[in-house]
Amino acid sequence: MSILCVGSVALDSIExxxxxxxxxxxxxxxxxxxxxxxFNPVQLVGVVGDDYPIDDLGFLSERGADLxxxxxxxxxxxxxxxxxxYDLNTRDTLDTQLGVFADFEPKIPEGFRDARFxxxxxxxxxxxxxxxxxxxxxxxxxxxxxxxxxxGAREPLLELLGRVQILMINDEEVRQxxxxxxxxxxxxxxxARGPDIVVVKKGxxxxxxxxxxxxxxxxxxxxxxxxDPTGAGDSFAGGFMGQLARSGEVTPATLRRAMVYGSALGxxxxxxxxxxxxxxxxxxxxxxRVEEFRRLTAFxxxxxxxxxx
Amino acid sequence: MSILCVGSVALDSIExxxxxxxxxxxxxxxxxxxxxxxFNPVQLVGVVGDDYPIDDLGFLSERGADLxxxxxxxxxxxxxxxxxxYDLNTRDTLDTQLGVFADFEPKIPEGFRDARFxxxxxxxxxxxxxxxxxxxxxxxxxxxxxxxxxxGAREPLLELLGRVQILMINDEEVRQxxxxxxxxxxxxxxxARGPDIVVVKKGxxxxxxxxxxxxxxxxxxxxxxxxDPTGAGDSFAGGFMGQLARSGEVTPATLRRAMVYGSALGxxxxxxxxxxxxxxxxxxxxxxRVEEFRRLTAFxxxxxxxxxx
Lengths: 309, 309
Known about the structure:
Two copies of one chain form a homodimer. With about 300 residues, the first copy, chain A, is of the alpha/beta class. The first copy, chain A, has one domain: Ribokinase (UDP-N-acetylmuramoyl-L-alanine:D-glutamate ligase). In chain A, about 35% of the residues lie in helices and about 25% in strands. In chain A, helix 8 packs antiparallel against helix 9. The longest helix of chain A is centred in the C-terminal third of the chain and has 18 residues, at about 250-270. Chains A and B meet through helix 7, strand 13, helix 9 and helix 11 of A and helix 7, strand 13, helix 9 and helix 11 of B.
């Protein structure tokens, strides 16, 4: 079944130590869909201005994305410009123009309202509520957020947690949200407010999933060249939700697998500007990287716990 | 066979958000030995002042450590005082008194000179050279270092790399040493100067081992309470080398296993002040934690790479 994805559809101008890209495809919904559609169809809801190169999203349609929920409004598209520092772990925002995104009111097309899997990209929690109000009976709602909303829209965000099964958030943000430096405790704090699952994204350090009584850790893939980290978190989310929706059920086994596929897709996203690397990614490329993830962490011991009594 | 370990034997005064400890056992050689002797005997070389509570090291002797290489000199022991911040990832050094450690000249006892496994704790690279000059034919030399030596003793440190098989270093330090932000590239830079293996310690984010054509990643154990992170890196090194020496050979399988046992010992070290948690650690405790590490990263996929052709 398709995943309903609501988020930003943007244009990015990016500078890294390796080069520049000007007004290329960006936004949480675009990265998410580019990654998720490797595994599973997506129904995309967002807004763009009349300047948006909508044809460039054609690769998503070819992979089974339904773009009929992208509204084209008079005005300019959401635009973000950023420059990454030498180590690629920090960046400066050079410009943010909300454009038509400032007045975004997600309208979920009739045919999308029976979605079972929903991804709420990082937008105003009030809009994330609006989306859920329009979906009949979602089974797995994952949402992302950021410091801006944690500070400025805390109450609606906390209410949203009660409607969400999976919170995907980065390490600094979950610490800020819970006012607790320990990630395990911060995640327990979140879980007490609703989500069964908290996925903490740690950038180059990987990601960690906290369930009720188990934890799963996936490393960041050790890339020789992190070309452009923009969208890595949304690509992670896309790989994660794409795998989960393809499997059709949420179990410890499918969640673990989703984490690894998420990290794999996040790593591919860093290899080129924008969604370039995701556009022609084949399932064998992904399977090979997943196998590398296995080799990265697999080990054998000589004694079992029982032999140590 | 025993591991020869040369490093600091110190007294630490520590403040964390959870409490204070005054003049407790510390120093790289003490943490290393407390961890390594869970698996394998250690021969310890260091210097203490006449104020050192040497009897408190008795637990090491009971676990097979040979302390006859600890010289007791007139004067004060190496003393370090530090205060950890709220998040336990950063700390302020409040005081450092080198005491008798300032004039430390490692003298390796005759009976220690045939060591096959050697750990050079974080001391002046000139002294690390002195140690190796006294050891007949070491097979596996692992060494640690820090920013102070990278900046102030760069040439002897680079020469030392040519005599070392395993460099254990934290992420900031290897980036500084190689002047390269990418960990994979920084490790390749180190390997070109000697060590076959670079183990990069990333604190709460775990550790990553770079070999010639493979990489292994072990996460940090997600502790609910990081009580005192002092010595976690040296305890990691002790668990790593203790496992490696116990297996008696250096292969991809034994190195992977060593990484996991290292991370397990590092996590135990954080649970109490000083070496308290390591003192009565049983092999079953360790085996259970190692099993938790396996569950933390193990996953199944439905398709093999070949099925994706």
